[in-house]
Amino acid sequence: MRSIVLFKEQVTEKSFDFPKNERLVSGKPERCTQNHFTNDSGEVFAGVWSSEVGSWRIEMGASEDEFFFVTHGRCRLTDDVGNVFECAAGESLVIPAGFKGVFEVVEALTKHYVIVERKV
Length: 120
What we know:
It is a single chain. This protein has one domain (about 25-115): Jelly Rolls, CATH 2.60.120.10. The chain is built from no helices and nine strands. It has strands at about 15, 25, 30-40, 45-50, 55-60, 65-80, 85-90, 90-95, 100-115. Strands 1, 2, 3, 4, 5, 6, 7, 8 and 9 form a nine-stranded antiparallel β-sheet that branches. A hairpin with a 4-residue loop joins β6 (about 65-80) and β7. The mean pLDDT is about 95.
């Protein structure tokens, strides 16, 4: 049996990256991921992610959903149809499988995330 995972007690290496040039819309934001949990089947991931201001295109996999809760900052997601969704500190949302659009960090952002990537 696995035990409870308290993020504050995890010694997790930070992984830094930037959006790929072909996906970049504006800025050149550095992003930081600390994945604190991956389940045994490799289908569930949870951790803390942060990014500087900027925007880039995203495309969720056909079996990949992401829930996140913003702890600091503000972001905006715009789908390929033009619908706009904003999320700020204290708010949460789900990006559904198959979503295509632009992820924009309006104010430096930190979020706690849970990604479920179902194996088919």
